[in-house]
Structures are given as structure tokens and as C-alpha cells.
Specification:
VC0802-like, alpha/beta, homodimer, Carbamate kinase, 2 domains, four-stranded mixed beta sheet
């Protein structure tokens, strides 16, 4: 794997291109380090876990730089700290606040390739912290933004974004370009190609991000602002889905925005992240929650504090039509509803926006519905 | 091992003692990292090897801090850089130039135990470098010096210094205190308990260093200036030895200090480190060289540049009587010579100083001679 990457980078470097590579830990390194920590502390102190985990990416970076040097490419590795990645926050969940581009620029003066350990940085107190989920993607985008005008490419285990999950739909098509907004919708809904954090960062700094497979040739997707010019054209880009969804209905009396605000504050205080929020009837707030989040305690709290009655529907999923100007006439909603009805799918909740039409449906109907929508909206690969 | 250390440190910490621990890499970590590097580059780029190797000690430090935290001790780990270890030099062979004590002192304000990754530091350009041999000992001594007034204890695989190598002599005695000078003589001559670099650093900063076994209770040795008061009293402290020694005789004509200087400059330029140097006859320079050093090329150079004729005697060793005021009357040299003669040991070369009397002898005579000297100088353990 390291040798494959080194071969490819050496090929690109032969043309004289200067590059900054951001790497994550190799293979099972992260698991091994977590197991090592588990031998001595349960749970390990979060700060020390960060000190430990950060070595995983440092090892990858050093090894890749060695492999490049072996191929005659001048390469140096840098820890997140050495690369000027300034972060803040808690261990294991830090966020990048600033990148000092001078450090990497200085290295690029003498080395053709700079390999940066992803997922980590140094805070104002000199503490080494690892980033939260999507930390390597975010490091790459932040460095590209700081360097200015750099192309940013994320290598992962898929060929960019497709029109639906290929494990469900046999004839998906690659999406060549996608806007930041649409990418966030897709990423947030199961097509987890790029972490929403990194997309948000790319949008804010106008960094175009190409997502490609780490080793196989094939299609790739560019996430960029360029597609914004198409924002006015109604277009379906893909079908996203979630499998493990619960639908919560909260009834409060008296009802009104003030009561809803109190419900939301109580949920936020309990760490529940409501998605697809709507209030279909007076006095009822409706939202979905992902399967992994504990629901009992916050619902108990709602009952205690606001005398709210809650119902939780389990074993649900969702399908989303993702695109641009989806509600502009003639609109894609009528067709979505027609397809759902044609398949006799019950829809206990639906939310809509210009970029996403989401139907909450039974979990066991997700696969067939995704296939039906993919087909109906003409996303299937052109096999002529 | 980590748990044993953590248990012991927790016991000491229970009394309220604040501590700085310096750790090296665990078990076979260093070998595994070298093997990993070898998979991708042969030889690996020295700078990258340092970036890689430094993670070994960082892992140890984080894991020990976790284990301490698990035992209710407030502990934090620091990389060499985070601990303010400033170094200069080449990768794999850097030297500590300064320690910024503020960094560790600040940590000791909030944590009772600070665990520092040994063997590493950061240079003025922000490069991470590992220290040469003895790097962990040296880190500990440098930190003790920087913190001022701290006790320094080195835990290793022996119970301090003994009067001779216990693998050769059955009834050695522990040496309770030893001066810096004597320790350097012993360390340089095979009793490699503490690296001479760390002893030199301890002397320069007046740091008393206790050397003890890492896990077993037992005797220990304090290396300190305190013994200097005994410097005037003739005393034999121990018998050191070397096994793999070659004796080189260089004959130059015309002879004289100037010619000798040219010989030494040529040798230094070839990386040969002459030891036990003497010039017994006009025109002949005599010195020993350790077995691992390549001798052919420098001797060829001497012949070319200075028309010097050289003879190399192989399969030699050396025994040294180490102590204080060794040449003061009545002197230990006569007894040494008498013992060597009594055992019919040939002595092709001998050098003497107040702290060391060294005889170059056949390698196969080393063991019996060490035992005879240990016995004759009354160093044997008092078994009454």
C-alpha cells in the first residue's frame, strides 16, 4: 500500500510537481494503539490517548517519506504540529482553527514532497490533540486552503460520489461535479465519501476537492463552487438513504414556537441531534434520530420538564432525492410521491427543501425504494 | 513492565513526591520500527528514520502516563519537544544543547508526574532529532540539571556498578559511591552502566546520579562529586576489561611530536579512535583500537601520506585497575606487574594514569587476569 502510493506519487513528481500529502494511520495501527492503551487503563486518559494515537499518523508519514526518498524524490515528513496545524478543543475531537502555511511552504523550498501526519495538531497551550471524525480529510482541505491555489485531492475507498449506493442499485452513475451544498446533503445522508466538516471547510475557503479511489483508476468527483452556476436548474443528482432511523413525535400543550424552542433546548442538552424536523400539526414536533443515539433519558426529561408526550417509531429508514432547485416548477415532489404510492410505501414523515426531498419509510422498504427512485429519476448508467 | 513501573511510581507518589520520568521505547519497539523502515527504503533517509523512531518513546510515555492516571496519579506525557529538550546535530546522533525547564515546571504545577519521551528533542529549525547512544540517560541528567536540585535516578538492567564484571568474577562487590571521573573510566572500559556522555553532563552540572536496577531491589551506585574528597586517597575501586582489542604500532621516520600529530590527524580523519596511546620508543606510536573499527584503509593512508610502517596485533584484550591516586606511593603498579608476571601474561603495551592502570594482554587471558586482580586488590565480597 505504501509502496503503491509511493510509486504513484513518484510518477506525478517526475513531472516536477510539488506536493503536500496528508496521511492517516496504516492498516490496523489505530486499533493496535487502542488495544495497547486498553492494556494499561480503562478507560485511558483522553489526553494521553491523543498523545498515543498521534504516533500512528506520524509513523505513516515517516514511512511514506522514506519510500519516496528511496525512489529518488526529495521528501520530508512532518507531524501536524511541525506542519503548522493549529487546533483547539478537546482530546479526540479538536478542530483546526488556523494553519500556518509558512512551515509547509518553507519545506517545499527544499523538498519536492511534504508528507503531513493527518488528524492532529497543536493547540495554543502546546498540547497535541487529534481531530474528530473526518480529521484527515479536514487536514488536507485546511492545508490546501492555507497554501492558496493548491489542488486538493482526497483518496479514499470509493471512486468519488455515485448517484446512489452501488450496493443497492446495480447501475449507478459516477457524479463528475457536485456543489458543496449537495455534497453535504449526500455526505450527511449515508453516502459518506467526504466528512461534512471537510466539505464545509472547502466551501468556506473555495477549495475544489477531487475525490478519487486510493489505488484503482476510474471515475472521480470534483466538489466545487463551479456547479453553483447550475444551482437554478432543477436537477436530481442522486438518491441518498439511511437505514437505522427512529421517528420521534413530541406533543406539547400549550403549543407554539416558545414550547418548541424549549423542547429543542432539552434535546440539545441531552446530546440528541434531531434531523428532518417538522411540525405537521399544531402541538406536535416531529423529527428523526439515528439508531445509535440513546433516546430514553431525554424523552423522560421532556415528560418531566414540559409535560410532553412522546411517541417513538422504530425500524424506520429514509430515502432522499438530492439535487438542485428540487421544488422549482414543475418540481420533483409530485413524482416522488407518485413512486412511493406506486410501491405502497407508508411515509410517516416527509421533509423537503430545494436541495433535498426526504421521506421517512419502513427500514425494510429502503432498498427497493432507492432502486425505484434511481430508475425513475433517470440516474441509471447509460448502457447503450 | 509498564504496570510494574506504574505500581512503583504510584507508591512513591503516594508520599506527595513530584516526579519527572524519562522513558525509552518498550521491548522490541525500536527493532520493529527499524524493520518497518527497512520494508520501504534501504537505507532509510536518516531524517525520516528519526521521525519514525521518535514515536517509540512517545508511545511508552503516553502508555505510562495512562497507567499512572489509572492508579489515581495525575500524570501527563510529553514528547522531547514538548518537554523543552533543545538539541542540535545530525539525525540519530543529536546532542542536547539546552533544556527549557519552564515547560516541565509548568506541567508539574498541575500534574504530579510528568513522563518525558527520552532520546529526542527539537532543533532550532524545528526538526525532530533523536540523540545518539546513551540518549535516554542523557535526557534524564539534562532534565535534572535544568530543574535544579532534583534527584536523578537511572533504572537499568544492573544493580549499579560492581567491582568487576560479575560474569567473570563470582564475588564482586557493589560500589556505593563513585566519582564522575572514575565512572567515566569504568563506563568507557566495558562496565557500560551509564553512557560516558551522561556522566560527563552530570559532572558539568553537579547532578548526583543514582544507578539502580529497574525492577529488583538491591544495591545501587551513586555517581557524584562527593567522592572527590577521597580523590587524594590511593584506592582501587574496580577492575574493568575489554575483550576485542587490537594493538597498532606505527613507525614513522623522521619521528617527533610533529609527525605524531600528523599520524593522529590522519587517523581522526578516517574515523579511527585510538585509545591507550603511548610512544614507548622514538619513532613508534602505539595505541589500541576496538574490534569493530575498520583499520585497513587508515593504515594504507598512513603508509601513503607519511611513509609510516604499521603493525597490527590481533586477538588482544585489556584489563584496567580503576581507582584514585593509583600512582601515589606506594602505588598499585608494582603489584599489578607482579600479578601479571605471576600468571605469565604477556603484556605488549601498558598505559597508566592516576585513575587507571591498563595492560593490553592476550584476549584469552582476560578472564583469569580479571579474577586474579579482583582478588589481589581485596575487592572480593566480604563473606564473613
Amino acid at each position: 500500500m505504501v509502496n503503491d502510493v509511493a510509486d504513484e506519487v513518484a510518477g506525478i513528481a517526475a513531472a516536477g510537481t510539488r506536493m503536500v500529502l496528508v496521511v492517516s494511520a496504516m492498516g490496523d495501527t489505530t486499533d493496535r494503539l487502542i488495544a495497547l492503551a486498553g492494556e494499561f487503563a480503562e478507560p485511558p486518559a483522553p489526553r494521553e490517548l491523543d498523545q498515543l494515537m498521534a504516533t500512528g499518523e506520524q509513523v505513516s508519514a515517516a514511512v511514506l517519506a522514506m519510500a519516496l526518498t528511496e525512489r529518488g524524490i526529495e521528501a520530508v515528513s512532518l507531524s501536524g504540529d511541525q506542519a503548522g496545524i493549529e487546533v483547539s478543543g478537546e482530546p479526540g475531537a479538536a478542530a483546526i482553527v488556523r494553519v500556518d502555511p509558512g512551515k509547509v511552504v518553507a519545506r517545499l523550498g527544499s523538498a519536492q514532497v511534504v508528507v503531513v501526519a493527518g488528524f492532529q495538531g497543536r493547540d495554543a497551550d502546546g498540547e497535541l490533540l487529534t481531530l474528530g471524525r473526518g480529521g484527515s480529510d479536514t487536514t488536507a482541505v485546511a492545508l490546501a486552503a492555507a497554501l492558496g491555489g493548491a489542488d486538493c485531492e482526497i483518496r479514499t475507498d470509493v471512486h468519488g460520489v455515485r448517484t446512489a449506493d452501488p450496493r443497492i442499485v446495480p447501475d449507478t452513475r459516477p457524479v463528475r461535479t457536485i456543489s458543496y451544498d449537495t455534497m453535504v446533503e449526500l455526505a450527511g445522508l449515508g453516502a459518506r465519501v467526504l466528512h461534512p466538516r471537510s466539505v464545509e471547510l472547502a466551501r468556506r475557503h473555495g477549495v475544489a476537492v477531487r475525490v478519487a479511489h486510493s489505488s484503482e483508476p476510474g471515475p472521480s468527483t470534483v466538489v466545487a463552487a463551479g456547479e453553483a452556476s447550475l444551482e437554478g436548474t432543477p436537477r436530481v443528482i442522486g438518491i441518498a438513504h439511511e437505514r437505522d432511523v427512529r421517528l420521534v413525535r413530541v406533543q406539547v400543550s400549550p403549543s407554539g414556537p416558545d414550547q418548541y424552542a424549549r423542547v429543542l433546548a432539552t434535546l440539545a442538552g441531552s446530546g440528541v441531534r434531531p434531523e428532518n424536523l417538522s411540525w405537521p400539526d399544531p402541538g406536535e414536533l416531529r423529527f428523526t434520530v439515528r439508531g445509535s443515539e440513546p433516546l430514553g433519558p431525554p424523552i423522560g426529561e421532556l415528560a418531566m420538564e414540559l409535560e410532553a408526550r412522546s411517541t417513538v417509531l422504530e425500524e424506520l429508514g429514509s430515502v432522499s432525492v438530492v439535487g438542485t432547485a428540487l421544488l422549482d416548477p414543475p418540481g420533483f415532489l409530485p413524482e416522488l410521491l407518485r413512486i412511493l404510492a406506486g410501491h405502497r410505501v407508508t411515509v410517516p414523515s416527509m421533509t423537503t427543501s430545494q436541495t433535498r426531498l426526504t421521506a421517512v419509510i419502513p427500514a425494510d422498504a429502503v432498498d427497493t425504494t432507492v432502486r425505484a427512485l434511481h430508475d425513475a429519476f433517470g440516474l441509471a448508467e447509460d448502457t447503450r
